[in-house]
């Protein structure tokens, strides 16, 4: 059984796909939370658990999983599951940046994917072990962006100013740049 899977379509939350998040680690991590309904997540999670049982043993139970039930602000279940994909960067390791693909998997994108984008994630299921037991990690090789919401950072300075009369500046579009495909990841989608 292969340990590489393609997730169902879901909504990206807190995506760090173009550059690593270095807030808690100097080397950083590429990561994204994928929000989808329990019904959509179930077939994928069944495959993840089959890989876990094959590698950790049929009676093993994960001490740590890479998914959780989404709760609203009042602590009530929303009916969604959040899959947490993460490529942790380590010293002297190869670059682990996921390849960003467009709706046509031959398109390679160079864009900051924003929260709210509709995506699918392809990559390995990583089973690890420590003194407490076995755990499950979800990693990324490629992300297919089906509906792009471009990340536009808001700064504190945005709240200080009002629109005034003055010159107008033409701003280039934030459209995704499509790069030629390298061909090696075409079979993931």
What does this molecule look like?
The chain is globular and about 70 Å long. It has one helix spanning 38-56; strands spanning 4-6, 10-21, 29-37, 67-71, 77-88, 99-101, 108-110, 118-130, 133-138, 142-147, 177-179. It has one domain: Nucleic acid-binding proteins (OB fold (Dihydrolipoamide Acetyltransferase, E2P)), CATH 2.40.50. It has one helix and eleven strands. The mean pLDDT is 86. The two termini are 18 Å apart. β8 (118-130) and β9 form a beta hairpin. The strands form two sheets. Strands 1, 2, 3, 4, 5, 6, 8, 9 and 10 form a nine-stranded mixed β-sheet that branches. The protein is mainly β and 189 residues long.
Short description:
With 189 residues, the chain is mainly β. It is built from one helix and eleven strands; from the N terminus they run E-E-E-H-E-E-E-E-E-E-E-E.
> End-to-end span in angstroms?
18 Å
| Strand proportion | 35-45%
Helix run count: 1
In terms of quaternary structure, the protein is single chain
Shape: globular
CATH class: Mainly Beta
Taken together, the total number of domains comes to 1
Helix content: 10-25%
Report Rg: 19 Å
Low-pLDDT segments: none
Q: Biggest β-sheet, characterized?
A: 9 strands, mixed
Instruction: Tell me the series of helices and strands, N- to C-terminal.
Output: EEEHEEEEEEEE
**What is the residue-mean pLDDT, rounded to a whole number?**
86
Counting helices, strands and paired strands, the structural category is mainly beta
Give the second-level CATH assignment, the architecture.
Beta Barrel
Task: Count every beta strand, where a strand is a DSSP E run of 2 or more residues.
Answer: 11
CATH topology: OB fold (Dihydrolipoamide Acetyltransferase, E2P)
Q: Considering the protein shown, what is the CATH homologous superfamily? A: Nucleic acid-binding proteins
